[in-house]
Amino acid sequence: MAGLVARLVDVAVLCGVDRTALLAELGLDASALEDRDNRLPMETFARGWKLLSERCPGRPLAIDWVRSWKITDIGVMGYVFAQLSTVEEAMEAAVRYGRLIDQGEAPRLVKGRATSRLEWGLAPVLLATEHLPETIMASLVHFLRGTVGESFVPIAVRLPHRSTARTDALARYYGCPVIHEAGEVSAEFPTELLGRELPGADPVLAAYLRKQADALMEQLGSAQALSQECARRIAERLGIGEPSQHDVARRMGMSERTLQRRLHAEGTSFNELLEESRRTIACSYLSDRKLAAYEVSFLLGYAEPSTFFRAFKRWTGKTPQEYRASL
Questions:
Q1: Which helix (H) or strand (E) is 315 found in, with range?
Q2: Which H helix or E strand runs over 101?
Q3: Which of 102, 108, 130 has the alpha carbon at shortest distance from 45?
Q4: How far apart are the first and last CA of the chain?
Q5: Residue 300, Cβ neighbours under 10 Å: how many?
Q6: Which residues on adjacent β-strands are paired with residue 118?
Q7: How much of the chain is in helix, strand and coil states, percent to nearest 5?
């Protein structure tokens, strides 16, 4: 969505990056960002995060993001959220319409008796940025503090990547423990929060805006929805070892045979999605020169670095060291 790319460009300028130069590197004309609901490639958003993180190493960009973030940056969905009656309605709308905000996102609300979680499935190219999962959690906390009170803090925030120099600053902002290498992107909170009322709700306007959002969802369609979800599940769990087809199928609520059959119908397979997820994330991790190549191999779930080195040479025609030198 153009609104998210426009916000990312604004954050980059706040961090001292030249707007014109950044737009040129992204191959974007400024007019493409004028309509917040304009659809832009997911890869453009991911590349923007990559460029910004290279220019601001170690900086907690999630905190820079929420300093000036507005709910309307996400276009029509921002206006939908502003008119809903309760926190639960807002979270259910995020789940229903998440793909309108970004086609690489798939939120899920997991309700429990005492505590609940809002989880975000992310496409591998977005998950590899590391900053985007952190920013999604910061935006959620920012939104809830603006609606139910500044004292709100989650019980825990969970992220799939390793701890970084940003972790302490993020924990201070979230106000809760940050659990890394958790195999998911999620925020846990007391279930009673779901019943809290949101200020300024207008049910009539909300119903009208929902119709607009439903129409936009129909335009997006659902092609290859299962393979995209499977790729997200794989990417989330790479940091804790190689994901198995059996485990991913169970987490998706189906048998291994059913997952195989449905992926085949979408023209792919579990092993193809696993390899593509690893390739996408490997290229992103290798741009971070603080990570040794052998560390990248373990972050991708390989038991031996040599297996990763052979796979990377097959994908790119270069060794990890040669690829890094060419950046």
A1: helix 305-316
A2: helix 87-101
A3: 102
A4: 28
A5: 22
A6: 109, 187
A7: 60, 10, 30
Looking at 3.40.225.10, 1.10.10.60, 1.20.1250.20, 3.40.50.2300, the CATH number of the domain 225-326 comes to 1.10.10.60
Contact 85, 203 (CB under 8 A): yes
Q: Which residues of 114-126 are buried (b: 16+ CB within 10 A; e: fewer)?
A: ebbbbbbbbbbbb
Q: Which element (helix H / strand E) includes 157? A: strand 156-158
Please tell me the pTM assigned to this model: 0.76
User: Helix axis angle, 87-101 relative to 203-220, nearest 10°?
Assistant: 30
| CA–CA distances in Å: residue 178 to residues 91, 111, 143, 304 | 21, 20, 19, 28
In angstroms, the CA 111 to CA 194 distance is 9
Residue keyed to tokens 């992926």:
263
Where are the chain's structural domains? 2-203, 225-326
Using CA atoms, how far apart are residues 256 and 246, in angstroms rounded to an integer? 5
pLDDT per residue as tens digits for the range 121-178: 888 888 888 999 999 999 999 999 988 899 999 999 999 998 999 999 999 999 999 9
| Mean pLDDT confidence for 270-280 | 90
Residues 164-202: pLDDT tens digits? Answer: 999 999 999 999 999 999 989 999 999 999 999 988 788
Query: Can you spell out the DSSP letters for 195-263?
Result: GPBPTT--HHHHHHHHHHHHHHHHHH--TTHHHHHHHHHHHHHGGGSPPPHHHHHHHTTS-HHHHHHHH
Q: Which H/E stretch holds residue 279?
A: helix 270-286
Lookup: tokens for 111: 């309700």
- CA angle 197-202-203, nearest 5°? 90
Collapsing DSSP to helix, strand or coil, 303 comes out as: coil
According to the model, what pLDDT value does residue 115 have?
Answer: 97
Instruction: For 11-37, write each residue's pLDDT tens digit.
Output: 999 899 999 999 898 888 888 787 766
